[in-house]
Amino acid sequence: MAGPLQGVKVLDLTQYIAGPYATRLLGDYGADVIKLERPGGDPARRLPPFLDGDPHPEKSGTFFFYNSNKRSLVLDLKRAEGREVFGRLLAEADLVVESFRPGTLDRLGVGWEFVRAAKPSLPLVSITNFGQTGPYADYRGTDLTLFGFAGELFSQGVAEREPVKLYGSAALVQSGGAAAMAALAALMVGARQGIGQHVDLSIADTHLGGADRRHATVMGAEYSGLKSPRYPIGAQGLLAGVYPCADGYVELGSSDRLDRVADMLSHPEWLQDPKWQDPRLRANGPLIEEFNAHLLEWLMQRGKREVWAEARRAKVMCGPLFTVREIYEDPHFRGRGFWQKAEHPVLGEIEAPGRPFVMHDSPFELRRSAPLLGQHSEEVLDELGYAAARIRELAAQGVVGVR
Question: Is the whole-model pTM more than 0.85?
Answer without folding.
Answer: yes
